[in-house]
Amino acid sequence: MGEAGTVILDGMGVRRSLTRIAHEILERNKGVEKVVLVGIRTGGVHLAHEIALRLEEIEGGTVPVGAVDITMYRDDIKGHSPHHPVGKTDIPFSLEGKRVVLVDDVLFTGRTIRAAMDALMDHGRPSCIQLGVLIDRGHRELPIRADFVGRNVPTSLKESVVVTFDADNKPIDVLLEKEER
Amino acid sequence: MGDAGVFNHKHIIALRDLSADDIRLLLTTAENLKEINSRDIKKVPTLRGKTIINLFYEASTRTRTSFEIAAKRLSADTVNISPSTSSSTKGETLSDTALNLLAMKPDIIVMRHNVSGAHYFLAKRLSCSIINAGDGAHEHPSQGLLDMLTMKERFGRLDGLKVAIVGDITHSRVARSNIQGLTKMGSQIFVAGPPTMMPPGVERLGNVTVCNDMREAVDGADVVMMLRIQLERQGKTLLPTMKEYSRYYGLNRETLKLARPDAMVMHPGPINRGVELSSEVADCDQSHILNQVENGVAVRMAMLYHVCGGGAVEAG
Lengths: 181, 316
Known about the structure:
The complex is a heterodimer of chains A (181) and B (316). Chain A has three helices and eight strands; from the N terminus they run βαβαββαββββ.
């Protein structure tokens, strides 16, 4: 992992960003009717739960949260570093006709999002998919952009952006790390 | 996290060759892939463009179909070749057949062969991955893995489980793969069978205790795994009569009562009803035979995925 990097968004900043994203989701979708959240494993799932809490606090009712694992939809089966085994996709509700907000922690090349959208399509036909991310660090390789962004952070390709979580999967802060190699 | 995600094997020929971490990874992947099999659209694009040849020198319905479905759910292209339609009946050697198939650029050959070790012979000569779907009386790794997955789902662990394996141990590759795998995962194995079907030295294969009486093996077991008596082969020479076999080594309600009350009954199929398993036991709540078949697809998906270089996920 390397040494601790520079904090680019502290705990308060993260919480405010998530609250603002929740409000933007409500505004765009005129409430929470038909809205479901699907987080990308693993950071995106934790954030999706945080956003769902805020949506429920503001509007009442419940907002379903699912998890999608994109391993089986990657475009580089051999190219990535082996760290976790395949995770489980867990979407315990129908996506048919739903307004799906896909949630990830960091938006980078866009390839993860492409894979996640393919995975969602295999689960049904949502009426629309929107994308919410805590950090947009640029360097897109595909024509993908986020609908809701916590913070835009210009980065170099040698750096990495890490969203840290505590033992209860609550976000702590966001670090910018210089990558060795 | 960390090392648990690396799978460094190009071939899967025997559970003997895999470490406990390898087995754990395959089982975790299989558990997580199971969800795909209950979707409306039972397909992911992972192995798109990969070609898999199922080369079966011995008859098989369940295993071949299961491998084929597993490959198709991962979007690989599959071709099935069986000896009656292939050139082995015209005198071609295994090596020549394989080299000819290799010229057509498959990524994986899934093979069942009646000669133990045939897969090691091919692995040395071919550049593609080889997966063993059963070789002679040696191993049947996918069956061993699916059995372990079924036990793990039921009990949440493999460590410390008491597993009884009853039947023709000598000719059973299912027994050998289970003994190899379960030993690595910390289970205790008790085997029982007619003396003519008990290979000398079986206790040296792993954490195995040989029991003279089936009741001894089943006593207090968490899992009772019954093996198929191969009526068409061993049935004639190694056993006096089927009735006698069934009386001493068949599992019925009475014998099952010796096991733990929540014990699971397993069988690799196809069952000879009334021989190694009474019908009422085969169909009872404790029977997990159909779960085994269901888990077979997920386990084979995990095997195909990992030999193709699929290790893991990490953000992007």
